Amino acid sequence: MSRLWVFGCSHTTPCGVDDSEFWAVKLANKLGVEFGPINEIKPNMHISFGGHEYGDGGAGIDIIFMNVMTKLNLSLIKPEDIVIFNASYSTRVNSTSHVHKPTQDKRWVNWHMSLFEKYFRPNWGDDYNRGDLIDQNFKHDKILFVHWYLRQKFAYQMLKDTGAEVYQWLLEPQHLLEDVLSQIDEDTIEKEIHNGSAQIFESMFPKFIKTHQGWENLLKCPTLKSSYTNKEVNCWSDIFSEVYPNEYKVDSHMNAEGNEFFSDTLYKLITEYRNENK
Question: For residues 254 and 106, what is the distance between their CA atoms, to the nearest angstrom?
Answer without folding.
Answer: 27
